[in-house]
Design goal:
CATH class of the largest domain in chain A: Alpha Beta
Number of domains of chain A: 3
Largest interface: A-B, 39 and 31 residues
Strand order of the largest sheet of chain A: 6-7-8-3-9-10
CATH topology of one domain in chain B: ABC transporter involved in vitamin B12 uptake, BtuC
Distance between the termini of chain B: 34 Å
Radius of gyration of chain B: 24 Å
Distance between the termini of chain A: 44 Å
Oligomer: heterodimer
Structural class of chain B: mainly alpha
Order of helices and strands of chain B: EHHHHHHEEHHHHHHHEE
Number of helices of chain B: 13
Shape of chain A: globular
CATH architecture of the largest domain in chain A: 3-Layer(aba) Sandwich
CATH class of one domain in chain B: Mainly Alpha
Largest sheet of chain B: 3 strands, antiparallel
CATH superfamily of the largest domain in chain A: P-loop containing nucleotide triphosphate hydrolases
CATH topology of the largest domain in chain A: Rossmann fold
Shape of chain B: globular
Helix content of chain B: 55-70%
Strand content of chain A: 25-35%
Number of strands of chain A: 20
Chain lengths: ~500, ~375
Amino acid sequence: MENKCAIEMKGITKRFGKVVANDSIDLSIYSGEILALLGENGSGKTTLMNMLSGIYQPDEGKIFKDGQEIYIRSPREAYQYGIGMIHQHYKLVEVFTAAQNVILGLDDEKLDLAKTEGKVKEIASRYGFDIDPSMKVYDMSVSQKQTVEIIKVLYRGASILVLDEPTAVLTPQETQKLFRILKNMREDGKAIIIITHKLNEVMEVSDKVAVLRKGRYVGTVETRNTNPQALTDMMVGHAVMLNIDRPKYEKPEEKLIVEHLTVLDQEGVKRLDDVSFTAKTGEILGIAGISGSGQKELLEAITGLYPIKNGSIRFVREKGKEVELMGLPPKRIRQEGVGMAFVPEDRLGMGLVGSMGMTGNMLLRSWRKGKGLLVEKKEPEELAKKIWEELEVVTPGTNYPVRRLSGGNVQKVLVGREIASQPEVLLTAYAVRGLDINTSYTIYNLLTEEKMKGVAVVYVGEDLDVLLELSDRILVLCGGQVAGIVDARSATKEEIGLMMTQFVTKEE
Amino acid sequence: MSQEKRIPFVRLAKRAEMDRKKVWLIRISSIFVAFILGSIPMMLTGSNPIEAYSVIISGSLSRPVYIRQTVKIAIPLLGCALAIAPCFKMRFWNIGAEGQITMGAMVSTYFALFFVKKVPNLPFLPDGSPNVTLLLIMLVSGAVAGGIWGLIPAFFKAKWNTNETLFTLMMNYIAIGIVAWLQGGPWEGRKGSQLIPMFDKSARLPDVFGVNCGWIIVLVLVVLMYIYMSRTKQGYEIAVIGDSVNTARYAGMNVGYIIMRTMFISGAISGLVGFLIVSGSNYTLYSGVANNVGFTAITVAWLSQLNSFAMIIISMILAVLDKGANTLQTRMGVPASIADIITGILLFAMLSSEFFINYKLVFRRSDKKEVSA
């Protein structure tokens, strides 16, 4: 059966200031098909889809629905054309139930919750969702919230669904469930677009793949006629090696010992519960877990930025002498001569000063140096220049505000500075989030280099494939507890996926 | 419905990065736009704007005596804007300069009133010259008093994260209230006058080129503040906190301590301005001693983008408006509050110029036409 063309985008161009986010892109979307929109971060996938869902208006180009030219000026108008988008960051009212969230904003419909709940149930059973319409959003897991978002769109009668990185926050098992649902919707004749940069998922679920690169349309291929390597080459524009090197370090020794670590947040909720592990020299310790399982708190507690309720964090100096770090503020940790570097998740909000240039940001580690009131700028200036050259940071100059750099360059500045401090322990949180493939591999290589220098590296990551290839051991966090520590050379993705949710399923 | 109508008539688009020269050009031209807009209320009061502006200029700058009076208005404005700058850089919204000035003025006055006979002047100075020792005591004590007044809200902010905007605002009224009580009570001069006596000649700041020497102090402060903000470790800490408190914590800075220290410095400069006002121009203390300088200085600091040297120009412009408007009132019968109206328009124009620096308007069917202010 030949599928009908649902939406056609022709010559779409969108500029943000000097940046051309989309450069005359042509894209056709067919009913009864799953189209994967593939591209690196910053290639313009989300921008293109935002124009389809009425958030942006294109600067040039036309959109056709069923052969008729249409103008979509707001998300509400997009719904009228049957287009619905599920964003990466969910937009739900936490204190409302699923059904209340679904009906929110539909002013021409009478508020009849019982009827809404019935209709929600009907949609759920048709496509295989698992949902309780009267459940409050704050009680829901990430994947349940996503379900509500999808049902919200279906409830409004959308026949064209756009999902922006839907699997980014899901466990492997939840991802499988979502894919089954997407396939059901395809059978029902919906047109589905998923924005992603994960190749294995593209291969698994999509019928066609459209590839964007740096705001330009590269082409569309049938999924069954392609393979991950070919897609990567299309995405990056040249051949890329997809393997991560994992050399073995000769004599790993204990470097950082964490025992019975428990932390509470401001509301008194346990964020980490009796966490114990050891990080060793010459080893990358991967940390896996659903986002919000205590990864951020763990790293911040170690670096003295998060108050600790209980436990012990000991740094092993040469000759086995140990220093207790628990309760020490960051300044004291440095004064103790503990070589610890930290690449936080929030790069511009915690790791860097966005309004300053590279030099000002190098100063962040050394500003206290030197006697007297004035800051010493010469050394950081030289360091900035060194990192600029060695890591090929794209910036007009060392005083150009880092906030205006692209995500990959921001991360290079941050990682470059932290490594330059010659740490013995290197903590990284989501070090490659939002980075293009080339920069990601630069970061993997830098971390492996550090490891082979004998640094104890802790790598908090979200992509299980990468964690399994890069790390030596993987610690799995679940709800602030250690679900287990496995050998990354022998563990499987499914095994880790189960551990990521093990305590949650126990409770239910 | 024709399709044409469905495209929005005008929409906003983010502008490409502009070079700094052009940015400042837009800012300066916005001042001119403000003066053009300011002529509308002038016409409404029935006077010719060109004539009115020339009266404002001539009334404030045409004769040495006018210039002196204008500079006298500009001194506290500039000093107080310098005081506010580090707080605003830190994103600590100190709107309590008014109270910090008042406290500085009050404590300086205490020494001027009660220690004038007790403190010996420097031995080599002739009789009848200002008492330098006393003036120095007044300066330091005024600064410390203003500093403490600024430290209080900073302490609460650092310890319990209270809202500094409300806190500093309330502190203003407490300070003004205390002075009002002194004025009618313990420090009252002639019974029933509700006035504090005038300072002794020896407790008044000497004039240099016809204006009290406060202008030299303030100009020195301009340079010092510039160096403090751009070259020192403390200035760096302030800039980092203003960008992100978490980054500051990450870098090992003690954020609470830095907030308190900065507010002490800021309050101290405001307190010093208080001393300059009582000892340099009023020669006495009353509850309205700060005369809204603490609030107008916010405008000065903001319009100058916290740049110390730009503050000199902006505070002079506001002083010219203020002084000139008084002349305007006497000569042409235009209410002096026209100066406030123009200042307000000036602020609006400068703020909207920031908008046009970042965005442009795109009209339907005319992709090339852009509008900027």
